[in-house]
Amino acid sequence: MLDFLRPTSSYLMLNAYPFFAYIGNSDQIALSYALADPTAPTVVDPASGLSYTSLFDAQYDGVLWAMSHLGYHDIPIPGPTSERNYGLFYPDEENVYDIPLTVVEVGSAVSNGSKVTVVAGAPEPAVAPISALTPGTAVVPTLALTPEPAVAPTSAFAPEAMLTPTLVGQTWCVANENVELERLQAALDYGCGPGGADCGPIRKGYNCYDPNSLFAHASYAFNRYYQLNARRADTCYFGGVAYVVTQQPRFGTCEFPSGY
């Protein structure tokens, strides 16, 4: 399949289901880990050394690693998408099941034994404005299981990292200074090792060694890997320890490349 996708410049659609992995291995996988709960226990990949608190992230990285190992790192994976309407409608948009599916239908449904009959023409329930919410009413945000690389504000950079203006359309990948040092080091080791990034300039005595900090060195390695892989968004994640920026980072006299 990958041999077909590459010459046609097509995307690989990844249909990851943490639920199925959990339900078949619930004696080994914590429910909080499958649900991407921030309090989930950390799971360390013995091969890469990367740490995960989300089963979805581990599944996604596993696919990327497998594709890269087989030489298909250039095939993009889009996302996220949704199956929320799958199996509910026929091609002519007629309902497959005799159940209410919209706010109007739910509000006007009449119980009929084991079935539900929808009363046509019922008025749509009114939605209260935000100002009408009583004090203390919380609006719960939707949980996004596929994190997208965030564009961080300049304040998120360490004091030693200065931003310089750049041309529109160029992007770089930098490390997240707010993650555990162990995760940052593991991701750095991957980028400079199996990832294939050229990390020579951050060795002692070379032009990007200073400032000698894990944050600066990891940022250089992550960006090298990101640029090497055609600046695909999924190559600037590293298990949640990196993100994309639109201004060129500069650590001392070290310049970050923006393309190969």
What does this protein look like?
There is one protein chain. This protein has 260 residues and is of the alpha+beta class. Helices cover 24% and strands 12% of the residues. It contains seven helices and nine strands. A hairpin with a 6-residue loop joins strand 1 (43-44) and strand 2. Helix 6 (181-192) crosses helix 7. The longest helix has 15 residues, at 55-69. The two termini are 28 Å apart. Residues 110-168 have low confidence and may be disordered.
Question: Features of this protein?
Answer:
260 residues, alpha+beta, three-stranded antiparallel β-sheet, 7 helices, 9 strands
Percent range of helical residues? 10-25%
Structural class: alpha+beta
Approximate shape? globular
The helix/strand series, from N terminus to C terminus, equals: HHHEEHHEEEEHHEEE
Provide the β-strand percentage band. Answer: 5-15%
Please give the order of strands in the largest beta sheet. Answer: 5-8-9
**Number of H/I helices:** 7
Distance between the termini: 28 Å
Largest sheet: 3 strands, antiparallel
Low-confidence parts lasting 5 or more residues at pLDDT below 50? 110-168
Global Rg: 24 Å
The counted number of beta strands is 9
pLDDT averaged residue by residue: 74
